[in-house]
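User: Can you write out an input/output pair for a complex, sequences first and structure second?

Assistant: Here is one pair. Inputs:
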Amino acid sequence: MSDNLGIFQENIISVSEFNSLIKDVLANLGVFKVKGEVTEFKITQNNGVNITLSDGKANLRVGGYALSVKGIDLIEKGMDVIIEGAADLYVPYGSFSLTAFSIEPVGEGSLAIAYRKLKEKLEEEGLFALEHKISLPKFITKIALITAKDSAAYSDFIKILKENNVSLEISFYPVLVQGSKSIESIKNALKVAMTFDFDAVVLIRGGGSLEDLKSFNDEDIARLIFSSIIPVIVGVGHEKDESICDFVADVRASTPSQAAYYIIDQNNIFLDETVSLGDRIFEKIKINLDSEMRNHHDMILSLEKNIDNLITRLFDKVDTYERILKSFDVKNILKRGFALIQKNGKKILSAKEIEKGEDIETLLHDGKFNSIVKNIKYFD
Amino acid sequence: MKDKKSRKEKIIEKLKSLEEIVKKFENNKVNIEEGLSEYEKAAKLIKSIKKELTGIEIKVEEIKNSYS
């Protein structure tokens, strides 16, 4: 670079050549992060950025195209900010400026303003609306856990699950939750987790100041959570802490422990419902079974009755035949002193059937004898 | 060779035979000699039927007790 400049140092060049040369030199200096207070702030009709950044000793004019400057919509006059950009020179006027790529507030006051502005903006866009919230599955079996390794948030979350004997498949994505690299770290973890078939993504961290929670108030992360088709549970810090990610999350837990309880409760509700359903099915089966048993019992009783009746009828029939037969029992009659008389094997029922001198046979109960008819007398 | 006829069939057949004998007596179609023999036959049938019916009665009670 110094060789090139040497050529010009020996020659006379025009103003525009000089300005263009300096512009090129500045372009090669790379990207800077400059901190200061916004003392003037304006966006032109053509989306041109016009900021004056000051540290009390010097002023810096900051330009750029508003639609491509990240964080520009969260800025207002009086905020302390860090502007990332490249040095530039406007050739026609020879005016020096910093072309901004992104602006981020610094300090609690500025962060609070930026937080409020971003919250209003995203709320207006509908990112917090209930109709966009995705319900957790009925029973959660596998989750992606995004938080800092060895953090209190991680320990609390795991401890609660263990204490409640929850069996979960947990894929842990360790991230930085604080500092300049935390936003990229969380974004990357979310992007990777969202490519898997998890039942839920859990993003947690402990509490802190607005500066500490800066990555959880980042617009890109908020939009990433909103775009997720997997339900995202966010649990940040203590009860009082709130972040943009909380509002955009499908399930907002007040603390990392609370995030664990949401999962436990969800699974317990499912188990209770399943047990209740099982009980209802069992009860229904029992009622049907009892009814069948009653029918079966009635059938058996009816069958028993029919069999008993049949046997009784048969006994009665045999008894009747027995009685009839007994009335025809010749031996019983003969035993009482009566006799049967036959002629040529045929019963004689009348004195008129025999004649004097005929051979007749007389049967008694214990024997028989033959005799010749000597005399016949007829009764009147 | 085992008698393949069921107990029910046997009882019914015996009852039929008994009924025929009773009818013969009632219709006065037996002479003395035959009457005695038929009467003996009927007495045997009655005894046999009653024995089988009692056997069935016991069996039915056993079945009832097995599931009550």
